[in-house]
Amino acid sequence: MDRFLDQFFNLEVMARYLPDVAAGFVVTIQLAIAVIVTGLALGLALAVIRAFQIAPVNWLIILFVDLFRALPPLVILIIFYFGLPFIGITMSAFVISWLVLAFVLAAFAEEIYWAGITSVNRGQWEAARSTGLGFTETLFNVVIPQAVRMTIPPLTNRTIAITKNTALASVVTVEEMLTVAQTSLAYAANTSPLTLAAIGYLLIFFPLTMASRWVETRYAWKR
């Protein structure tokens, strides 16, 4: 037991590397917020555009969605990080990690939003149109509010699952918590910095999980 505590909960090592891990904690929060905001907004925008049923545009949206849902995020991250410079596109590791994870979240979010839009009863469309509302007004004022409420539970679960992939940014040397903890582990020859990172992830994602549960209870669509 003493060896376990010394290896994983060494207070001296934790105190030494706490400032570094805390800096990585801030980067992880910044990346997570950027991914959530961008991914959910882009997913909704794609679902709305798809509702207009413009065939060539819909094919491109479906291709984007299927591609980013089919490939593992780590594979996409590596392709973007090492491949884009060959075509003259240079971005920081943080920006690439943000875009890749946001695109993955957007792909799943678009399908969830789209399922919500198509599940709205056809009678809702017809009733709104009978009052003189156009297609766009019906979509934004009647259909989307109902669709979003119905998609809250699967959307929040998928958002949390994908946002936890911020740890993958360590592969492309983003100075987030896992990267810093691994570096600290190598210097200290002790796994206590990884324990600090684990605590940091709990501080981020446990409240996020609780918040998502509250949102589901408060705003989810009910019969």
Helix and strand sequence: HHHHHHHHH
- Unreliable residue runs: none
What is the rounded Rg?
21 Å
CATH topology: MetI-like fold
Fraction of residues in H or I helices: over 70%
- N-to-C span: 53 Å
Total helices: the number is 9
CATH-level-4 superfamily name: MetI-like
Could you say which structural class the secondary elements and strand pairing correspond to?
Answer: mainly alpha
Shape: elongated
For the secondary structure, the number of strands is 0
Named at the architecture level, the CATH assignment is Orthogonal Bundle
Largest sheet: none
What does this protein structure show overall?
The chain has 223 residues and is mainly α. The protein has a single domain (2-219), classed as MetI-like (MetI-like fold), CATH 1.10.3720.10. The chain contains 9 helices and no strands. The protein has helices spanning 2-8, 11-51, 55-70, 73-83, 93-119, 122-130, 135-163, 177-188, 192-219. α6 runs antiparallel to α7 (135-163). It starts with a helix and ends with a helix. The mean pLDDT is 88.
